[in-house]
């Protein structure tokens, strides 16, 4: 089974059909060539779980959904769903800008910000846990010298896991386990850690690295603008390195990539790629299966690479998704989603998806 690296974007990706990556993840199985049959279980390496030592979540029942959003108002955690109709009636039918040319990120009125924030906070992805996969992951890592591996029995799925999975496998019926990334460790460490997990692929386990191809919050822009040079140059280098099989360069991106430390001032959103590369095995080949750019209010310029990795002697043609497109900032349209009112936003920015095989 192939392994993948993907950029998970912000939590709005799970509900906003105007984000280019939304369509890609919704058509996951045919678009990514992930196979006609669903995996037995999924191991997600998320940028949003950092620990000093490797850790897995061991959940015998249903995974909790963790709403670990950064850059969102505190009101997300304070307002009741019962208040939505009242807040909506107060705001009327005005046009609401997601971003104004002046001011801060957010909706055009506090009422509508509360509506969308509370809607996102209520999203659930009740996938079953995968305690057997957690223990097998622990066993493989400790055998390879990456122990001790901690067991976390009360931790659910953070948005690096459930946001893409909600689109890829919406039934939430596949067991999911999370593996942390490790603060203070480099790309080579995470690559070798991934190599220890390679046997999982033969067991029907889908290994997903969930992070971002670029992730620099300080470079966030609220304006409609072309992709900045630093992001474009890093993205081009990353694609060339992955497609050319120069994985050691990718592991040492902070030394060898143009704008490496600008694209990733901190490495946690890039380490899931290193794990996915390692888990693919030495005889792997990368393929870019989706690219788009999204400029969000908290994850900024973000290239999404979905990395599919498979054995070289396995050949099959898979359709490629369309290349990048973008929509203009025109405010927001009200729509219904699963019977609830929310904002359908429209904005421009960056997403990229690559695949290793």
TrEMBL record:
Cofactor dependence: Zn(2+)
Top-level taxon of origin: Eukaryota
InterPro entries linked: Extradiol_dOase_DODA, Xdiol_dOase_suB
Key words, A-Z: Dioxygenase, Metal-binding, Oxidoreductase, Zinc
Domain Extradiol ring-cleavage dioxygenase class III enzyme subunit B: 3-80, 114-296
GO molecular function, one term: oxidoreductase activity, acting on single donors with incorporation of molecular oxygen, incorporation of two atoms of oxygen
Gene3D superfamilies, A to Z: LigB-like
Keyword flag Zinc: yes
PANTHER family: 4,5-DOPA DIOXYGENASE EXTRADIOL-LIKE PROTEIN (PTHR30096), EXTRADIOL RING-CLEAVAGE DIOXYGENASE CLASS III ENZYME SUBUNIT B DOMAIN-CONTAINING PROTEIN (PTHR30096:SF20)
Homology family: Belongs to the DODA-type extradiol aromatic ring-opening dioxygenase family.
Protein name: 4,5-DOPA dioxygenase extradiol-like protein
Organism: Triticum urartu
Lineage: Eukaryota, Viridiplantae, Streptophyta, Embryophyta, Tracheophyta
């Amino acid at each position: 089974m192939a392994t993948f690296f993907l950029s998970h974007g912000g939590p709005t990706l799970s509900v906003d059909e105007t984000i280019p990556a939304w369509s890609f993840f919704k058509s996951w199985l045919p678009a990514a060539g992930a196979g006609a049959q669903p995996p037995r279980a999924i191991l997600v390496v998320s940028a949003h779980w950092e620990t000093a030592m490797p850790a897995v979540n061991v959940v015998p029942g249903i995974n909790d959904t963790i709403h670990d959003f950064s850059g969102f108002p505190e009101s997300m955690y304070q307002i009741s769903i019962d208040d939505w109709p009242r807040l909506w009636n107060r705001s009327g039918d005005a046009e609401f800008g997601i971003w104004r040319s002046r001011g801060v990120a957010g909706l055009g009125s506090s009422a509508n910000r509360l509506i969308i924030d509370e809607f996102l906070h209520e999203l659930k992805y009740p996938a079953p846990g995968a305690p057997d996969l957690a223990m097998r992951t622990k066993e493989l890592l400790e055998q390879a010298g990456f122990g001790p591996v901690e067991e976390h029995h009360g931790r659910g799925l953070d948005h690096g896991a459930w946001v893409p999975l909600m689109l890829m496998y919406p039934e939430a019926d596949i067991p999911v386990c999370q593996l942390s990334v490790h603060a203070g460790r480099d790309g080579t460490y995470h690559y070798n850690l991934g190599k220890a997990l390679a046997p999982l692929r033969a067991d029907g386990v889908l290994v997903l690295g969930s992070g971002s191809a670029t992730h620099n919050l300080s470079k966030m822009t609220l304006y409609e603008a072309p992709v900045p040079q630093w992001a474009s140059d890093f993205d081009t280098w990353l694609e060339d390195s992955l497609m050319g099989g120069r994985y050691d360069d990718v592991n040492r991106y902070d030394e060898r990539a143009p704008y490496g430390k600008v694209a990733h001032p901190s490495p946690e959103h890039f380490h899931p790629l290193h794990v996915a590369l390692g888990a693919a095995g030495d005889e792997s080949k990368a393929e870019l299966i989706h690219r788009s750019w999204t400029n969000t209010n908290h994850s900024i310029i973000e290239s999404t690479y979905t990395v599919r990795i498979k054995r070289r002697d396995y050949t099959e043609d898979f359709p490629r998704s369309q290349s990048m497109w973008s929509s203009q900032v025109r405010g927001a349209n009200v729509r219904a989603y699963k019977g609830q009112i929310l904002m359908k936003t429209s904005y421009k920015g960056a997403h990229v998806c690559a695949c290793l095989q």
